[in-house]
Amino acid sequence: MKKKESQEIKSLNENIMTEFSVSELEERLETDPIAFGTVADSAMQLTTECFTCHMCFTCGEF
Amino acid sequence: MPLDIPIYVYICKMRLSDYTIPIEIDSQRNKVLLLHGYTGAIDIVSKEVFEAMTSCQSLSKDNLLTLQSRGYITEKSPNEEKLHIERLANIFLKRNRTYKKDFTFIVSYSCNFKCPYCFEKNRINKPTNNHLQKRDVERLFEAMLEIEPNRALHNDVITLFGGEPLLKSNLDIVEQIVSIGVKLNYKFTVTTNGYDLDSFLHLISKDKIFGVQITLDGTKEIHDKRRIHQSDKGSFSKIINNIKLVLEKGGLVKVRTNVDSSNLLNIKDLVSFLENQGFLNNPNFRLYTEYISGEGNFCPNEYEEDSRTISIDEYIKEMTLEQITVPLDFTLFNNINNAITKGQPLFLNIQHCGANAFSYILDPNGNIYTCHEFVGTNENIVGKYKPVLIWEKDCLSLWHNRNIINLQ
Questions:
Q1: Would the CB atoms of B189 and A52 count as touching at under 8 Å?
Q2: Any CB–CB contact under 8 A between A4 and chain B?
Q3: Dist CA B343 CA B142 (whole Å)
Q4: Residues B129-177 pLDDT 10s
Q5: Given its phi and psi angles, is residue B182 left (phi above 0), alpha (psi -120 to 50 degrees) or beta?
Q6: Which residues contact B69 (CB under 8 A, 6 or more apart)?
Q7: Per-residue pLDDT reduced to its tens digit, B218-239
Q8: Which helix (H) or strand (E) holds B369?
Q9: Which pLDDT belongs to residue A43?
């Protein structure tokens, strides 16, 4: 029964915003804020296909 | 879980998080999709687990720990969760303000088209101060450094916008902008109707204008009824030819299709046409659609008033048919879809878009805006850049300080 129930949660994504990642982000903003670059840089490797990022999400990368 | 706390005591401290968002799955009635508003987790759980979540005591130890690690159940009180949101809000506000600044130049408020749904309809083609003057071009670049003195914090890509930026009559202005910009290590993209693009081909290259966004609203018959040139009977054929010319030069082309009731069912035909042209196989070609019906209609009193509007659901359903999948400019859908289909974390934010943080649009009249949809409107001027830089602080604050904490 326990084994069946334990299969009843399926996580679809990883790297969520845990307490640890919140603290990491806070520290990074204090020590190296300029490294954030563009919106796209912080989420993915910016390519010229993105043109300039207006956070329009048309690329489907966000 | 701390080892020295008996599990029954530990469970009693847990509660369903106020930011757990459950969604029924039409095709799987015995399952529930869960999203979490501040961890960004997405999970599918059985109905039994979901029902047990409301009373944490019914959960197995493994499930309890999993759900806690994902944020759906929490030890935090409601007030502690609110404080956590405020902490995240401060972090994301700081983060958003560190992003590189995006600059757009409105080359001209004139346009050679008269599209019925144009959101700038009442602001374009006015008789005075309609396009940039040569004497103002250097001031644009000076103003950028006054807005953000650290050049390293400028996005190297500047967008040219309008009205229509690539009118043949503005060729010398655009040449001057690109010439000065390239010397300062910027490059350019353009949002254009694409009609006069053939007059600007000499500026298409990796280090000058490297990409263009062009609107095609359907196959020829449909497009020509919606994208109306001021004097030419049709614009489709010329635009298609110009797309080919840009791609041949190695430029990037992003085609946008505005979708409403009059062309929804034509999109798959447009996709077939573009495929037959060889565009879809070209790595430098992208296509996406924009919903402009219903709440997306910028001219509700003048456009589509007699037609049946289409809902967001109808739009998404048609764009995600099995035979075709066309990217949507629909923030919420893309964010969740990418998390579900690619396993990516949800992109968490406390502000809507770049207009709230790092976008600056400079127009021919010396005005500064943050949002492309409101250029030319007096009430959304956040500053002036000529003759000197002056901020309209109240308006700027309305845009830059708007976030989920202060929404009414």
A1: yes
A2: no
A3: 43
A4: 688 999 999 999 999 999 999 998 898 889 999 999 999 999 999 999 9
A5: alpha
A6: A18
A7: 999 999 999 989 888 899 999 9
A8: strand B367-369
A9: 44
Tokens of B68: 């806690």
Quote the CA–CA distance of B209 and B190 in Å, as a whole number: 7
Please tell me what DSSP assigns to residue B360: E
Helix/strand/coil for B7 = helix
Confidence (pTM): 0.87
Helices (H), B265-383: 267-276, 312-319, 331-342
**Tokens standing for residue B303:** 């456009």
Q: Do B40 and A16 touch (CB under 8 A)?
A: yes
Asked if residue B22 has pLDDT above 80, the reply is yes
Burial of B159 from C-beta contacts in 10 A (0-12 / 13-18 / 19+):
buried
Q: What's the half-sphere exposure (Cβ side, CA atoms, 13 Å) at A30?
A: 6
Strand locations in B9-166, DSSP E?
15-16, 20-24, 31-36, 42-46, 73-74, 101-108, 154-162
For residues B160 and B188, the answer to whether their CB atoms sit within 8 Å is yes
Q: Tens digits of per-residue pLDDT, B50-77?
A: 988 876 667 888 898 999 999 999 999 9
- The mean per-residue pLDDT over the stretch B290-295 comes to 82
Task: Compute the distance between CA of residue B10 and CA of residue B241 in angstroms, rounded to an integer.
Answer: 68
Q: Inter-chain contact B339–A61, Cβ cutoff 8 Å?
A: no
Q: Shortest CA distance to A38 belongs to which of A15, A55, A21?
A: A55
Of B87, B102, B252, the CB nearest to A48: B252
